[in-house]
Amino acid sequence: NAGVMQNPRHLVRRRGQEARLRCSPMKGHSHVYWYRQLPEEGLKFMVYLQKENIIDESGMPKERFSAEFPKEGPSILRIQQVVRGDSAAYFCASSPGQVGTDTQYFGPGTRLTVL
Amino acid sequence: GENVEQHPSTLSVQEGDSAVIKCTYSDSASNYFPWYKQELGKRPQLIIDIRSNVGEKKDQRIAVTLNKTAKHFSLHITETQPEDSAVYFCAAMYSSASKIIFGSGTRLSIRP
User: pLDDT tens for residues A1-10?
Assistant: First the structure.
């Protein structure tokens, strides 16, 4: 049973470009979460999605950031017009989404560097 | 607002000694408290978790305690080994949403 997959593992973008980060949850998991980790800091919640629905986006900046989890395919975190402050590790986590199964399992992360 | 405080930020212990990391949370409705270990450049990995209906849980050298009244929870690592060196994050899940709120992390170093 493969774990949470993320790609790319490393992404370099110049200021003003777009970044697309992909996350495939564990098999059987229907809930996906995105977290951002700045260097030497903790993880900050960004957005929580179920298939075709955004459940909680309270941690996501209102501008330039968007997320989706389509019926088919991976979840996508999209950052438009990237700025240097967007440089961070972006982790995706998934959970089964059933009552009593709150555990979130993390992917390896995508390390975004904005030049 | 939702907040998890974690102390200390750095901790150095002699190999074989015990390490204790403490956290407090703000929302009394929190009902799930996982602990994650993160090695340099790696993903956070769940090492133990506890739910609000339990006061203590143990898994080999790792134990977690929860005091709901005081809104405190702690991680205890006994007989520390070099491979325990990492950053440890406490976290709380709030009943109103499924997001996890993380503490700021504790960098644990084990001295040989």
Answer: 579 999 999 9
